[in-house]
Amino acid sequence: MSNTALLPVDFHGTSLYAAAIDGVPHVAIKPICDALTVNWPGQYLRIQRHPVLSKGVVVMQIPSAGGTQETICLPLNLLNGWLFGISAARVRDAGRRERLIEYQRECFDALARHFGAAQPNASYARITPEQQDQLTKAIRSVVAAKWLENDPGNKIHNHIRVAFRVARTEDLPAECFGAALALVRSKEQAVEQASEFLADFRGWFARECLAGGTPWTPAIQRNLTKQRGQRIQLPPRVDWLALSLQDKQAIGAALLEPCDPGERI
């Protein structure tokens, strides 16, 4: 645990806490979760499970209403890697969603100004061609899903450029490579979860809407009757199409349900 004192940094009327540990800016994560009303235990588990974020964790003391408590901090250069791992699309409340986007857009810059961090210049160390290739392959893996449209690869590159404040992906600072790769891999997991949901939804639609919601056919009825030695009565047919039209709002809401219970917002 570090003995360096965390100092408050005002961000849109909220006190965030930061400190320089051995000259490296660090940020307390729980106050940000509290400000965003994001589930802290879920985010803590996500950080602990993450191969990059977990290596940057530092435990520090922070003032609170109940007295001094321990809290975990991340290096400032990993902040966006963590923040962008929280999907704004999963936040139903419009006000909370806008606040999350505001933090993703401005929080890093505000804290960087607090520490007097300068914009990178031409002499800083960039990622290597091998690392560029690794990022490119990771992005290709994400966009391999056929249902993704409108140049999803370019959208991911743009997210990296905005998150790490570079004009081009190849200008990414070498020290940010791990966080950028983690950001891309978090999108791969999200695409996998979305693909599973869409596959289930297509199966449900074909079965319940197109096929009328019943697996019973005359052939099945005959086979069961023969096997049991008695006539099998088919169950009453349900109008699943009518039910699906009535329930379309619930189906739309299901698209916004969090995929990982440990990361529920």
Morphology call: elongated
Q: How many domain regions?
A: 3
Tell me the quaternary state.
single chain
Strand order of the largest sheet: 1-2-3-5-4
Which ranges are low-confidence, i.e. pLDDT below 50, for 5 or more consecutive residues? 117-122, 259-265
Which CATH C-level class of the largest domain is it?
Alpha Beta
Distance between the termini: 28 Å
Profile the largest sheet.
5 strands, antiparallel
Radius of gyration: 25 Å
Second-tier CATH architecture of the largest domain: Roll
> What is the helix fraction of residues, given as a range?
40-55%
- Please write the string of helix (H) and strand (E) elements: EEEHHEEHHHHHHHH
Named CATH topology of the largest domain? Mlu1-box Binding Protein, DNA-binding Domain
Helix- and strand-based class? alpha+beta
According to DSSP, the number of beta strands is: 5
The number of helical segments is 10
Strand content: 5-15%
Average predicted confidence as pLDDT: 76
What does this structure look like?
The protein is an alpha+beta fold and 265 residues long. The chain folds into three domains: 1-117, Mlu1-box Binding Protein, DNA-binding Domain (Roll), CATH 3.10.260; 121-195; 211-263, no CATH class. It contains ten helices and five strands; from the N terminus they run E-E-E-H-H-E-E-H-H-H-H-H-H-H-H. The chain has helices at residues 30-36, 40-49, 76-83, 94-114, 129-142, 152-164, 177-210, 218-228, 240-246, 248-254, and strands at 7-11, 14-21, 24-28, 58-62, 69-75. Strands 1-2-3-5-4 form a five-stranded antiparallel sheet.
